[in-house]
Amino acid sequence: MFVEMPSPSIDTDGLSSSSATKCADEQRSASDSLNSLIEGKIQEPCLELDSLTEQCPVTCENNQKSKKRRSVCCNTVAQCVWGVLLLFMSIGGFIFQPLDFVLKEKLNMRPGFPPYEWWADPPDEVKLRVYVFNVTNHDRFMSGLDEKINIEEIGPIVYLEKLVHRNIVFNENSTMTFTGQRYPVFLPKENTIDLNATLLVPNLALLAMSSYLHDANYFVLTAFRLMVTTHGSKFFLKKTIYEYLWDYREPILDTSKNIAPGLVPVNNMGMLARIYADFTDEVTVKIGQQWGDEEFFQIDRFRGQPQLPGYDPNECPDRIFGSSEGVMYQQRLTKKDVVLYWRKTVCKLMPLYFDRELTLDNVPLYRYNLSESVFERVTNGTDCYDMVPSLPAGLSDASKCYFNIPMVASYPHFYTGRPPKDQYVTGLQPDRYKHNSYIIVEPLTGIPFRSVARMQSNLWVHDISRFSSPYSKFSNLVLPLFWAEYNQEGLPPKIRWTIYFIVVVLPPLSYVILSLLLLLGCYFLTKNIYNYHVRSEMLNSLLHYKSSNSQILSNNRLYAYEKEAFLKIPS
Q1: Which keywords accompany this UniProt record (predicted)?
Q2: Are residues 334 and 424 located together in one domain of the fold?
Q3: 110-125 pLDDT tens trace
Q4: Is 375 exposed, middle or buried (0-12, 13-18, 19+ CB in 10 A)?
Q5: Residue 114 lies in a domain
């Protein structure tokens, strides 16, 4: 028995429906592939580009090109901006050195900054050493056995000189006015001299008043001699060291002060008592960039006047402006500069000249010595520091700072030989190393590291032969009374190390830092410019390769499609 099987249905083209469907799908797939190739939608593998820094990687996700957001510091534009800024900073730093900025800022003396604070509250570094003279042959001198008085030096008596600045006012004309006060403090631990030890000294009250009245009329001379006889005053007195320095009193002083207070304004002639009795002064100094380095902190007014105190400006051409009290000097000192030092105890401007270079505490410094001709007579101009009759060379009139008492200043022990050491008294032992004066200053900042000022006070006795004997023994005589040394013995460590950093460390350190900034700025700019150039070339190469490859692939796929389509056509 036979069963009939259904015969397959064949379309009119002789192909089954499933084959036709398959063929249509293949044709659509080929067509889609061709279109995608022609339209350039070929998916290439994701390429990783070099980032500007290791912290900014480029990642690929889902076969699509993507990048993470870069930080501001790694951004190309930011790095270029930083590069330009660093270049400007480094170039500006080479032109305007950090040291120049520090020095310009110091000119302003702003409160709160180190220069002002150091000056306003100066360190206790100045030691006052006083040497007094004891007479050893007064009996022989008065009896005529010895022609000259013989003296011996006793000392030092050591004090700390305190300096206080008060009432500080900043003026509108770039000056600063303040009140400076100095006073000594006895240092028991540094003294080996007993202040109660006895000295034999000339009667300063008697000789000073006699010298002052040397040209008075006969009646005044007679009255003065009568007063001396009445009080029983002698030409030599015994005084303790303390009395000689601080409490020198005589009966004729009290009487004279009551009779003629204008002639004798005080009744205490103690050496240090007179010096420090009136040592509170109003001073105006120049500050600010208006005056520059050369005039920085120079005195403009002393007690409101531009001339020396006690001097007539019409008779004395010397002016106090341009000098310094020694706490701070002008900046950027050179070897040709003359440093003017003002000390009221000398009553004279003291010029210091460059001597040599040296190094202390690893800081390069300049030493300026006080001129050894400072007490010479002026021959080609007005001599403000002479008397009538004229003083010998080597002596300077200081009477205008001591109530017109005939006091004269000189070098200790007349060490320069002017006047000769044995011309007036014997026993002096001049020593250039022990008796000269100098300052050691850091030239850029004008801050003194060391300073030594040594001066001797003497009594100038005029020709008093009109008083007859024994007054005539003292006529035309220079009597050394004492000499003092003001010694700034260094600086506190914080100031010393700050100056060391500013002068020694800062200049080379600034060059290193500025050079690094310059290199870093160049690196940022060069790197980003180079990366931009490389990326531009790579992008052009990729686009060219992609275009060529797409064209080749498109042609190859088109040929394959045509070949496949031709083979699939039913015969």
Answers
A1: Cell membrane, Glycoprotein, Membrane, Transmembrane, Transmembrane helix
A2: yes
A3: 998 989 998 998 887 8
A4: buried
A5: yes
As given in the structure block, the two tokens for residue 430 are 């001049």
Share of the chain above pLDDT 90, in %: 44
- Please check whether residue 28 lies inside any domain of the structure: no
- What the block records as the tokens of 540 is 């052009």
Q: Are residues 149 and 277 in the same domain?
A: yes
CB 368 within 8 A of CB 353: yes
Write the pLDDT tens digit of every residue in 292-333: 999 999 999 998 888 888 888 888 888 888 899 888 899 999
Q: Are residues 107 and 203 in the same domain?
A: yes
User: How far, rounded to the nearest angstrom, does the alpha carbon of residue 561 sit from its chain's CA centroid?
Assistant: 91
**Above 60 in pLDDT, residue 5?**
no
Q: Same structural domain for residues 182 and 215?
A: yes
Joined tokens for residue 331: 């900046």
Task: Give me the count of residues in the chain.
Answer: 571
Q: Domain check: are 457 and 521 in the same one? A: no
Residue 494, classed as helix, strand or coil, is helix
Could you tell me if residue 47 is inside a domain? no
Tokens matching residue 557: 């796929």
Identify whether the C-beta of residue 152 lies closer than 8 Å to the C-beta of residue 427: yes
Residue 466 sits in which domain range?
A: 98-491
Q: In this predicted structure, what is the pLDDT of residue 306?
A: 85
> Domain count of the chain?
2
